[in-house]
Design a protein that fits this description.
- Helices cover about 5% and strands about 45% of the residues.
- The chain has about 550 residues and is mainly beta.
- The chain has three domains: about 325 residues, Kelch-type beta propeller (Neuraminidase, 6 Propeller), CATH 2.120.10; about 90 residues, Immunoglobulin-like; about 90 residues, Immunoglobulin-like, CATH 2.60.40.
- It has three helices and 47 strands.
- The longest helix is centred in the first third of the chain and has 13 residues.
């Protein structure tokens, strides 16, 4: 019965994920087929803080692709997510994702993990990562491999295999040893306690669990190992259990512990602030029903309580703790939420940091639109709310622009040259204090172009009035002011004020010849000067030729 459940596990998860878009499925299958050793890549996908829940949970940057039952461990204050099975669909990932809580961003090492698998034990001992056992869904095989990863090597080293291959085991680290507890051996749920000495690279065994289980969790609290929940071998309609058993490594013996408030398997359990947190999982392995609950065990009272639920109900999840913040990553839920990354902590109202990343072009011209980009960050999560952009021209330029993924943009316009200060002010939200940033900006006069539209008539007669029409244009705005028209080798001139950028005036030339008519715009406070000219011909008189017609006699 247990073997059949393990073989059908992928199908159960796929059914739970059927609402995921076809586009996502195609992307994931493409990723599976193209995984190979490649340089480190990075991606950052920010997402909004979950305002619909409470201040204990925040939704952080998702993984690039969905994973169920990955290995999750902390190394150098970053969360490493190793292998796991793809959701939705089948196949195991060979990627190693690295999440940085300070930047809320992910990086990926592709194709470096040997023997991709899920449901393995992953542990950090003296800043070395160990990956032990696991399940290959494609081969329907339980592994006994032990691999070690050291920072800087970018490769995994094969170590001594475990005594009995298992997947879905619980684990804790005590000194230099990793305790691997229970798990599935390919046939049934086991009670094995296998102890790996990371210094000598050897395995030994401890006293078995009183009740064999798989998909359980284990934590170390006050020197005792708590083996929590999981699936029993003898549970037909619902193998999931609420059993808690406590192991004393010094005595190598087990005793009963306080049972969970409800059955749980394929969940996560971690220790935070001296208490045990059991989050998510399934209350019925047979139906793959994912839950969002958070149970908390306080050893001082010996009792379990219920805390705020996880934003996304998931099973097949893993978690890590950094600075009293629990990061719950991956898993499978009703909507196939395998990319989810959610954090639990006593969140306070945190300082935010607003930065103007662009004010372009700089310098700009009068009346030229200026693009102002800004971003607001926090020490955890992504701020929401609005940003207002103002200038020292005492004009509100952009009012309450909503942040999208912590970023925003607006356009501002200055109508007068000068040196200005642009200020972006973030008003804060339920989790973040307000902040602001200022940038200097230079504005110059807008460039203009003048053209002589016509000088008629051309040619003209000596003493005949000439109508000169001109226009002044700019890419930004409509120039105003006066245009003066002068003539080469002549004292004649005329002028007119622009109306909608156009003007005209008349002048008279008293001698024949070829002249250059120049229109000059002196500019104004906002527009730069410019000039243009045209050639004009003046003749003494217009000759008219009358053909002679001979009359026939």
């Amino acid at each position: 019965m247990q073997v059949d459940r393990m073989k059908n596990r992928r199908l159960n998860y796929l059914v739970g994920s059927i609402l995921v878009s076809v586009g996502m499925l195609v992307f994931l299958l493409t990723s599976i087929s193209s995984i190979a050793a490649a340089p480190e890549t990075s991606s950052q996908k920010t997402s909004m803080i979950d305002d619909t829940t409470n201040d204990r949970w925040r939704i952080l940057a998702d993984m690039q692709f969905g994973l169920g039952s990955p290995g999750v461990v902390v190394l150098q204050n970053k969360v490493h997510v190793i292998s796991g099975f793809y959701t939705p669909g089948t196949g195991n990932s060979s990627a190693q994702g690295v999440y940085d809580p300070l930047t809320n961003s992910w990086q990926y090492l592709w194709g470096i993990f040997p023997m991709p698998r899920s449901d393995m034990v992953v542990a950090n001992v003296s800043d070395k990562l160990f990956a032990i056992g696991g399940w290959n869904a494609d081969l329907e095989t339980v592994y006994s491999f032990t691999h070690r990863f050291e920072p800087g090597l970018s490769e995994w080293i094969t170590m001594t295999s475990m005594i009995t291959p298992v997947s879905g085991a619980g684990s804790v680290v005590i000194s230099d040893s990793i305790y691997v507890i229970g798990g599935f051996d390919g046939i049934t749920s086991t009670a094995h306690v296998q102890i790996y000495n990371t210094i000598s690279d050897t395995w030994s065994v401890g006293t078995p669990l009183p009740k064999g289980r798989t998909q359980l969790e284990a934590v170390l609290l006050d020197g005792l190992i708590y083996a929590i929940g999981g699936n029993r071998a003898d549970g037909d309609s619902n193998p999931s259990t609420n059993i808690v058993e406590i192991y004393d490594p010094g005595l190598d013996s087990w005793m009963d512990g306080p049972p969970l408030p409800d059955s749980r398997a394929s969940m996560v359990a971690v220790v935070r602030q001296g208490k045990i947190y059991v989050i998510g999982g399934t209350d019925n392995w047979a139906s793959s029903n994912a839950v969002d609950t958070t149970f908390v065990y306080d050893p001082s009272s010996g009792a379990w309580t219920t805390a705020d639920p996880m934003p996304t109900a998931r099973s097949a999840i893993q978690a890590a703790v950094i600075s009293d913040t629990i990061y719950v990553i991956g898993g499978v839920g009703e909507l196939g939420a395998g990319t989810a990354n959610e954090a639990y902590a006593d969140f306070e109202i945190l300082p935010s940091f607003t930065r103007i990343s662009l004010d372009s072009p700089d310098p700009s011209q009068s009346f030229q639109p200026i693009v102002v980009n800004y971003a607001v960050t926090s020490t955890i999560g992504v701020p929401t709310g609005v940003v207002t952009v103002t200038t020292n021209q005492n004009a509100l330029q952009c009012s309450e622009q909503p942040l999208v993924d912590g970023m925003g943009s607006c356009e501002i316009i200055f109508d007068t040259p000068g040196t200005y200060t642009i200020t972006a002010t973030y008003g804060g939200d339920d989790f973040n204090l307000g902040s602001s940033d200022s940038e200097g900006h230079q504005v110059v006069k807008a460039e203009t172009t003048i053209s002589l539209i016509e000088d008629q008539p051309d040619p003209s007669l000596v003493g005949q009035p000439i109508s000169v029409t001109f226009g002044v244009t700019s890419t930004y705005g409509i120039p105003v002011g006066t245009v003066v028209v002068t003539v080469s080798n002549s004292l004649q001139s005329c002028a007119d004020d622009l109306a909608d950028g156009v003007g005209s005036c008349a002048l008279t030339l008293d001698s024949q010849g070829t002249y250059t008519i120049t229109a000059s715009y002196d500019g104004d406070i906002a527009f730069a000067p410019s000039s243009g000219n045209a050639t004009h011909l003046v003749v003494e008189s217009l000759k008219v030729y009358i053909p002679l017609v001979r009359r026939e006699e």
